[in-house]
Amino acid sequence: MPMSAIPEGLKYTKSHEWIQLDGDVATVGITDQAQSELGDVVYVDLPSVGKTLSAGETFGSIESVKAVSDLYAPVAGEVIEVNGNLDSSSDLVNSDPYGAGFMIKIRVNGDLPGDLLSAAEYSAHVG
Amino acid sequence: MNRRTQTVPEPSLIYSKSKAGRIGCNVPTCDTPEVDLASVVGETRSELKLPEVSELDLLRHFTNLSHINYGIETGFYPLGSCTMKYNPKINEKAAGLAGFAQLHPLQPVETIPGALEILHGVQSMLCEITGFDAITLQPLAGAHGEMTCLMLVKAYHASIGEGDKRKVVLVPDSAHGTNPASAARCGYSVKSIPTDADGNTDLAALEAALDDTVAALMLTNPSTLGLFEPNIEKICKMVHDAGGQVFCDGANMNAMVGTTRPGDHGFDCMHLNLHKTFSTPHGGGGPGCGAIGLQKHLEPFLPVPVIRSVGDTLIADYDRPHTIGKVAAFYGQFLMEVRAYTYLRAYGRERIADISRYSVLNANYVRERLKEVLPPAHDRPCMHECILTAEKYKKEHGVRALDISKRLIDYGYHPPTNYFPLIVPECLMIEPTETESKDTLDDFCDALIAICHEAVENSDLLHDAPSTRIVGRLDETLAVKQLDVRWNG
After folding, report:
1. Which residue range is the domain that position A19 belongs to?
2. Closest by Cβ to B425, choosing from A37, A42, A90
3. What is the CATH number for A104?
4. Which has the least CB within 10 A, A2, B83, B203, B253?
């Protein structure tokens, strides 16, 4: 079986979120590993645009047929976009976790936290 | 192989057998004046569709449906964390005695000394088994018992002037989901305590979380990992030193009955599921009973009525100035108590420890027989249930714990609990209970070993399972997203 995908160029958290930085905007989702562990995602609860998050804060929750899990903000900042497609098509999190299954975009406020992982470090973390 | 075949017809609704005018019973000739129904209740509902069948049609319909049901009386039911033990029939016989079954809850208390004797008897036996000073049988389910315990803790902290500052309840990450839910329902915020690599409570994390805002720690012992918490006395002392109370989730009491007592470990209160540990019906046969036990300092806050003796007489005491009030109608689920009483007396003090001894022995036997194909999550003896991981089949063959569980249905078994506790990847949680023989356990283990071989050699058998039943693999995702429980016939 193929190992779960961990693209280079993204940053990761130990709680299995990924971020992609484009200037001061961070796109946030959960990793392939996380969606694989969760199983079929049935509901994603996301914040409203405009909400201010601190790093490590719970920004929403994700429900699969197995469990409900919290989602943690990898960086501090303001939510500027929410992936509304997940309302009707939560399966995008399973089928395209690094693309159409993203969750929110955050305008980053301040420095990136020091505990974000590189692809290699996250790969070692999930074993 | 122990595969059962079924030759029952496709299940259908009774409506499909309906024929206009067919009747199942003869109603006696009316001997009172006829009344025009429409003039009393308004327009009658002519569109209301009721099945019209004969008595035999009806009997066959429901008997056939009952044959495709699965229960403890048709096969092994290793559903972890649920203690699906056999409930002896004598419990039902006792609960059906007219003197119990036909009592009215509003009867004057002087007319029900026998019922009070049962309630008091169950309380006394559970006090002795748990090591607590008092028991109330009123909560109607396990989670209700959890919540009642937290309400007592809250009342206790308020009584010593600490109600305003103690707002946090600590819950290990291996806990049942009802624990944080009960805490939140009682107005507490919840902080999660991690489990260490050995499957025990992470003491450093607990120490760091303890301060004067903590109201209680909710600890399941044995834990949902099927492991006895070796630091239990130390943990209780740490929480007490910080001014908190310690609640024991008694879901796993089956591993301790007659062998060791939570009241002696340092817990302040606990809940018991009579419908698990003490052999009263689960679910549809219920409702259940989430009895709670507590130490003396929590006793003033007990819900009313408190069944207690005054001299030689038993009374239902409502005169309790510090009570949290009522948590259930009347006396709780009285007939559950009759069943539990029967069960406890049938075992007796002399044999009650057989419950924990055989349930722990059975779980360890299963664990040992399966360890080559399904390794245990922690390499040490387990208590009443074993937690195994199917992780290697997922990594190497794309087979998940869910697929193994579904394949067990083809082999004629109810699947074990899977994906709980959440901290074990591809988790299978097997609780055989004390009521199963070695022969049954061997047959079940043989089936699981065969399935694990299938996972390697022909994994499609598992992905497509169940394939020999009248209902195949259900789309759980769709069921959650498009919940439809209405009949549209």
Report:
1. 13-111
2. A37
3. 2.40.50.100
4. A2
**CA-based nearest residue to B116, from B327, B279, B341, B300:** B341
Residue pointed to by tokens 């790969």: A123
Quote the minimal CA–CA distance from B244 to chain A in Å. Answer: 27
Residue pLDDT, tens place only, A26-42: 999 999 999 998 989 99
Domain carrying residue B12? 1-28+46-57
Determine which of A66, A88, A90 to mutate to test the interface with B (most B C-beta atoms within 10 Å).
A66
Domain count, chain A: 1
What CATH number should be reported for the domain holding residue B415? 3.90.1150.10
- Flag residues of chain B having pLDDT under 70: 1-9, 283-286, 489
The Cα of B446 is separated from the nearest Cα of chain A by a number of Å equal to 27
Q: Write out pLDDT tens, residues B327-377.
A: 999 999 999 999 999 999 999 999 999 999 999 999 999 999 999 999 999
Check whether residue B14 and residue B107 sit in a common domain: no
CA of A101, closest CA in chain B: separation in Å? 17
Residue of B nearest to A88 (CA): B481
Question: How many domains, chain B?
Answer: 3
For B370-399, how does the pLDDT look when each residue is reduced to its tens digit (9 = 90+)?
999 999 999 999 999 999 999 999 999 999
Count Cβ–Cβ pairs < 8 Å, chain A vs chain B.
Answer: 26
